[in-house]
Amino acid sequence: MENIGQYIEALIFASEQGIRTEEIIYCLQASFEHDYTADEVTRQIDAISQKYQDDAFAIEVVKINNGYQFLTKKRYHAAISLLQLQRSKKKLSQAALETLAIIAYKQPVTKTDVEQIRGVNCDYSIQKLLEKELIAITGKSESVGKPILYGTSGLFMDYFGINNITELPQLKEITDNSSAIGEQSE
């Protein structure tokens, strides 16, 4: 017979949320056509938990909300928090991505120019992009009212893994005509 403990360990690892004993039993019974009891599964989980108590592992099995889950041990939480903070800075909404794309391709550009292209107010998106340091104020326009000009920042290059703005795809490269209806005329 297979090592059931390894299957249970794999199920706990693969589960995005805590996995309940009943779910583990269901998966095992469906895989091996054998009746497993809650006691058998619990003993295996206890053995897995014991294994991960060793200082050689940075993770442990934790029982949360009647389910089991692999979590990082408490002593690593400060480092994990820094990683989460860094990654949260990288998430952009669709509106922010659209605004950033317009600024990247049209820079230097004013907020009004971006709003005319998008057709909606861009105050929030521009503010968030400034906070995330993906765009920067590059100066003031010579037009009436001397509006602020925006352009991409050095962090923008890091975020998208490019060395300079000329490495952005050309608009004709990303335009897809495959969904066009009717004949194309040149």
From TrEMBL:
GO terms for biological process: cell division; chromosome separation. It comes from the Bacteria. Keywords: Cell cycle, Cell division, Chromosome partition, Cytoplasm. InterPro entries: ScpB_csome_segregation, WH-like_DNA-bd_sf, WH_DNA-bd_sf. This is SMC-Scp complex subunit ScpB. It comes from Mucilaginibacter terrigena. Gene3D superfamilies: Winged helix-like DNA-binding domain superfamily/Winged helix DNA-binding domain. PANTHER family: SEGREGATION AND CONDENSATION PROTEIN B. Pfam families: SMC_ScpB (PF04079).
